[in-house]
Write a structure and sequence with these properties.
Four copies of one chain form a homotetramer.
Chain A (H helix, E strand, L loop, with lengths): L5 H22 L6 H8 L3 H7 L3 H25 L4 H14 L4 H17 L3 H28 L8 H22 L2 H19 L10
Helix pairs in contact in A: 1-2, 1-4, 1-6, 5-7, 5-9, 6-8, 7-8, 8-9
Chain B binds a DNA duplex (21 and 21 nucleotides) through helix 1 and helix 3.
Chain lengths: 210, 210, 210, 210
DNA sequence: GATGAATGAGTTTTCATTCAT
DNA sequence: AATGAATGAAAACTCATTCAT
């Protein structure tokens, strides 16, 4: 018989994770000290350690939660979209408007840092790889759908295209996140969309005329 | 009247920088401790501080040196190339064969980390921005050349295209550097080249029909 | 909702300051290392840094506390004294018996070192000057009182006399603190009292006449 | 058969000591690093260690040299003075005009610091005491002369008076050296002279009468 | 469950001294 | 004799984690 309800605990957990995201995003994972999270969350150091075993676990949980939420979101949005092309376009739209959600903006920085951090810790590599594959698979599925429906060129390797898609996204986000020039980012993202889709889609009625 | 020659000192400096690169690349900048560099270089802690004022300065000098070398290299290679298209292709070739030079591979990781690190230190932002602009300008110049010669579509904004070029490069390198799958990287890079050049070049006798 | 009472913290603070005084007095400020204070106080290094931001802050707080206590003490003692002459005599008495309080003895050494230290740190000069002026003003007030009541020669400049008073005190303390010959110190101090008071007081019924 | 003349070596030694005085005076003994002396003297670190075994030895030699010079000076000046009163007045005059010689000003700071430093090093205490006694004896001799000639009160203890003389001097110098207010210092010193001499001299035809 | 004081290993940097040239 | 590069033992300070209350 727990003293507090499960919801209470869940809420507190999330509260900590939100503060952690803010701090990690602003100062970086290594530079963030637990006291930063204490200050931002107004939750005591001891309490934080009641919910998470270590700073690293906070990091890991944070990334997992964000990733899960991203896929939930996508699932929901895509449910109503019928073609691969629409789904891809929706994804591009997502990052075009993303700068409005400061939240996601922060997440990106933290993701990229995690990329660095995780690639150096043997024990995190599998987590990193799993997360990466989840993203890859997500696009692979769309590409395959598109190839079946004839929207997307059959000669392309879905795995390869998916990897390129994420490389494009991450490269652009990398620049944007750290240089912060929103207008340029948006223009670049538009151009990238055009370039990517025209490369990937079948010529018939190619380009943009939705 | 120094006791050792300027070359000796230069060599030692480079020796330290090489060890630093190795350490920074393996463990990350923050996680690398001076003793790691001491151990790797076999140079005493005090001696290292005779050559560099701080760990951060080692980092900065390292990046500067690498960047300078990159541009020197490029300058030299491009001197013999007559068209914008050839220059771009040469750049793609460069990163395609890059994995052979382990050295450059390391530098990339460190560059990306610097991106994160620098974007959070007010005093480093200008260095970061200057470095970024140097890279941007380099491609802008090539694009403009190509537009004048008719190789490259005139309606494209050179700045924007340059940014996209580097986003492609960085995104791909980001994935490769941390996932380390060489074969996939090379294939992706080939595809990216095709995508990019076909987007950028004028259709007449368009880029790749090997 | 602190886990410990304010008194507990105050006590701990004082405990650290006392150890610091002991160490600074024995070895000097610069030569004292934090581990000396750790050893003497039996408080961990980290805990010390929970109470004070730096070694220098310990020094500053220590001096401030001692100075405050000195003036509190004086205020109390002087409350019952009605004439300027009595107040001056009381001050002389204070340092005559001072050697009995080992505590004050230590403080003096540390004060003098602070004089040296502070005079070389731009940012400490104002603290030093403020402290000095507080001492000067204290005697100035007494001198003026005495001049009004007729006890003290009207032609003397209170500021100048006050400065001389403290020069006498500091000079004597300097010698005593470092040579440690108590008997000689006490005799010198008696002589100084006689010299000073006979110079300062109006002849009529002057306290000391040879 | 030495390679260089004794004079050359002596000159170099003095050069180092002069630089050391400057540095010690400006930054303090502990805060001065050998490289400060190297920079100021333009003599290499190795060479400095050829002339002195350690930083401490430089300090000690410096103090010794300065003390010796002081007494040589005094001897010379006093040779032409016939009475104890004149000799004392001459001493007062010396410190009154001293601020003009920046050199001596520096020495004072260093002396005071040495007082602190020396009193904490068992092995330096005897050096300190010897130096102190040399100063004490110097005044004792003058006082005794004055007592014999009738200039100075016979009932005074020469040792005690000598100690007080130096306490006055050191106290005043302490304040001046670190607060640096020249005008105030000079006025105080005048007043101290008046106070001291009127206390010490026989009333008949006393030097200073207000 | 919550609190925040305490811990101490770990980190960067300094600097007196040495010694090969 | 002179040089200055090299050494490495300190020293101040940090911060993830623990644990008594």
């Amino acid at each position: 018989m727990p003293k507090v309800s499960a919801e209470y605990k869940e809420e507190k957990r999330n509260h900590i994770l939100e503060s952690a995201l803010k701090c990690f995003s602003e100062k970086g994972y290594q530079a963030t000290i637990i006291d930063d999270i204490v200050k931002d969350s107004n939750i005591s150091k001891g309490a934080i350690y009641n919910y998470f075993a270590s700073k690293e676990e906070i990091y890991l949980q944070l990334l997992k939660k964000r990733t899960d939420e991203f896929f939930e979101d996508m699932e929901q949005e895509n449910a109503s979209l019928t073609s691969a092309g629409k789904k891809l376009e929706n994804l591009f739209k997502r990052w075009k408007k993303q700068e409005l959600k400061e939240d996601d903006q922060q997440t990106m920085r933290v993701y990229i840092e995690f990329w660095l951090y995780g690639s150096r810790q043997e024990d995190l590599k599998s987590i990193l790889a799993a997360r990466y594959n989840r993203f890859i698979d997500y696009i692979v599925k769309i590409i395959k759908e598109g190839q079946e429906s004839g929207e997307i060129k059959k000669e392309l390797d879905p795995q390869n295209i998916s990897r390129i898609f994420w490389a494009l996204r991450d490269g652009n986000v990398l620049h944007y996140s750290f240089l912060g020039e929103e207008e340029q980012y948006r223009i670049a993202w538009d151009t990238i969309e055009e370039m990517f889709l025209s490369y990937v889609k079948n010529e018939i009625k190619s380009g943009h005329q939705d």
